[in-house]
Predict the structure.
Amino acid sequence: MLSRLSNISDAVNGPILFVAATSLFMLIVITAVMIYFTIKYHRRHSPVGEDIHGHQMLEVVWTVIPTILAFGFFWYGWEGYKIIKTPPDDAIPIKVTGRMWSWLVEYENGVQSAELTVPVGKAVKIDLASQDVIHSFYIPAFKVKQDAVPGVPGLFLWFIANQVGEYDVFCAEYCGMSHSKMLTKVHVVEPADFDKWLETEGAKVAEIKKATAAAESGTGTNLHILGEQLAKSKGCNACHSVDGTALIGPSYKGLYGKKEVVVSGGTEREVTIDDAYIKKSILDPAADLVKGFQPLMPSQQGLVSEGEIKALTAYIKSLQ
Ligand code: CUA
């Protein structure tokens, strides 16, 4: 519980220990006095009741001590809060976006990932955003947690990881059906490994950009491989399986070319899943909703390019 895996740990552990120790001390003192009085004022020891009026010293003591304690709690908490809210200027900025139901991690060089990778011993600042509802980015090992609220900019958390390793990341705000599946990892690696990783992934991004541009102009090859990468990085696979299992949305397997009954504005009709349908479903998911599913997917308007839609379509097509 009182691990010290990040610099924030101390800012949290100190106040927790202080409050817990004070509470324990008070519990012991109050219980002891209570037991003492129960015996002392038992009928057998003091058969005649007695009224006591006023005791200035006692009143001063029971006002001053709790006041000092309360301000002690405040001061200790405030000192920790200042640390939590003051990232150093040279912290590595990483953007994390919550959406139903996955996290998107973005680095300055354009690298996108579903998991967080950070260097050990270096300050990292996570800027949080949400695409739909309130999510909460929570790394218990580092004692950091911050809500991502749609429409509220400037939310962040920061930390310096103390130890190389792999730790859990949770969503700590109930955000709908698959809230519990918003699990991911933070990989803490040596700074040199981090730089290498970022560079390698950056090169991949450049490749994906080239491939997307090619897809846009209609000259792309192996579009389905690009589509598979996109389905992962954009979080599609949180709701769409590739093995035929229906999750939040229909499975991609065997979807292309299939005849589906969809609900369009309250009326049912049959459509064949083709390029146009997939594109519409990405940009306006609720318009022609496959019967039996809930309109839970957020619109991807402005979040996917024409080329990316082509690649995703090719990927779905390849999953027969
Ligand atoms: Cu996102 Cu719970």
Q: What stands out?
A: The chain has a mean pLDDT of 88.
